[in-house]
Amino acid sequence: MAALYDKDWFIEKVTDIDDTDNEVEVSFMQKKNLYQWPRNPDVIWIEKDDVLCTVNAPTETGKSKRMFRITDADEAIIIEKFLAGQ
């Protein structure tokens, strides 16, 4: 999934859902040229409204398989939704 946090968007996975408070617990990936899971998990609760969209699972890339890439189509959808909310 892609979600808003601190005035930017990030790729994340949902780890828990709290329907009572309308929140989801997410674990964010680090955004560089590619994406990677941080050494120390970046897990927080965000409002469901901050989830921009669902994306295809990022694909492993590189020899170490620790870096990930999202599709150009997914990135275009994320950016469109991100800009529409500004």
Task: Write the topology of this structure.
Blueprint: E1 2-5, E2 8-18, E3 23-28, E4 30-31, E5 35-36, E6 42-47, E7 51-53, E8 59-61, E9 67-69, H1 72-84
Antiparallel strand pairs: 1-2, 1-7, 2-3, 3-6, 4-5, 8-9
Task: Describe the protein.
This protein has 86 residues and is of the alpha+beta class. It has one domain (2-84). Helix content is 15%, strand content 47%. It contains 1 helix and 9 strands, in the order E-E-E-E-E-E-E-E-E-H. It has one helix at residues 72-84; strands at residues 2-5, 8-18, 23-28, 30-31, 35-36, 42-47, 51-53, 59-61, 67-69. The strands form 3 sheets. The chain has a 5-stranded antiparallel beta sheet. It has a two-stranded antiparallel sheet with strand order 4-5. The longest helix has 13 residues, at 72-84. The protein is globular. The mean pLDDT is 93.
Name a few traits of the molecule.
86 residues; alpha+beta; 5-stranded antiparallel beta sheet; two-stranded antiparallel ribbon; 1 helix; 47% strand; globular
